[in-house]
Amino acid sequence: MLKTWVVMPTCLPLVLRRCHACASGRFRASGKFRVNAHHKLIDVWLLVLCTGCGDTAKLTVLERTHVRSVRSDLLDRLHDNDLGLAAELLQDPVVRRRNRIALDWDNAWRLDTGGSDHLNHEVIDVSVRFAARIPVRPVRLIAEGCGLSRAEAERLITQEKLVSAVRLSGKLSGDFTFTLKR
């Protein structure tokens, strides 16, 4: 029996970046955008607030872009401060590289296993899907979803009772499957 688990974000992740006003290295995304037009050119920033001092920083989304090259639905979402768009842009590798930021997903996601009826089966086949690119250790997901300790999940891997086509020891942010034999 194949079960599907989903790793879902519960809120926007923290932005890891050094604050210029205090020693804090974490910012909270407000979900608000600043749009500034210069004749036919447009600049767009995502506003983030320092968790230490509350100072505002701007993450560049668009810079000196011709207004006509921006899709009208995107422009509407920017003007409406669309929270979903903020989440998409924070995960965009181009935006992260341009602004030299990383994301901290601690306490910003949850695992939906669809119930605990799979815990009493001898063999469990599970497909894990990620609703967003959230880097998580597969051993942590498996331990949490099966009601095991991490040490016990590691022991099952070494005994080859927990197998997968992907390496279970590092971090993953993409879909994978595994089989657990008890």
**Mean pLDDT across all amino acids:** 92
**Major β-sheet, in short?**
5 strands, mixed
Element-by-element helix/strand order: EEEEEHHHEEEHHEE
Strand content: 35-45%
Explain this structure to me?
- By secondary structure, the protein is an alpha+beta fold.
- Helix content is 23%, strand content 38%.
- It has helices at residues 72-79, 83-91, 93-99, 138-146, 150-158, and strands at residues 2-9, 14-16, 26-38, 41-50, 56-66, 102-104, 109-112, 123-130, 162-164, 176-181.
- The strands form two sheets. The protein has a five-stranded mixed beta sheet with strand order 7-1-8-10-9. Strands 5-4-3-2-6 form a five-stranded antiparallel beta sheet.
- A hairpin with a 5-residue loop joins β4 and β5 (56-66).
Q: What attributes does this structure have?
A:
about 180 residues; alpha+beta; about 25% helix; elongated; 10 strands; five-stranded mixed β-sheet; five-stranded antiparallel β-sheet
